[in-house]
Amino acid sequence: FKGGFFIKVILIISIFLGSLGIDRFMIGDIGLGVLKLLTFGVFGIFTMIDWFLISGRIKEKNFNQVMMFAY
Most CB contacts within 10 A, which of 6, 19, 37, 68? Predict the structure, then answer.
């Protein structure tokens, strides 16, 4: 799987390192990564919310990559 993101891998990283923003840095959301890094995941609240949102974001990024190669 070249150039895409594995949902399970990013989710595991989000669970263990999500409060540092590592998961957001990996999928290219630099702004949210910096926010989570400086506020420790907005004191853990955004980190827990992100566990549910991150899979949808990864699917969106993977779909956009596929569509970019289709044209």
Answer: 19
Distance CA 44, CA 46 (A): 6
Q: What confidence score (pLDDT) does residue 2 get?
A: 55
What percent of the chain is predicted at pLDDT more than 70? 94
Quote the CA–CA distance of 67 and 3 in Å, as a whole number: 13
* Residue (of 13, 61, 12, 53) closest to 21 by Cα position: 13
CA 26 to chain centre: 6
Contact status, residue 28 vs residue 19, Cβ threshold 8 Å: no
* Among candidate residues 50, 46, 28, 26, the one with its CA nearest the CA of residue 38: 46
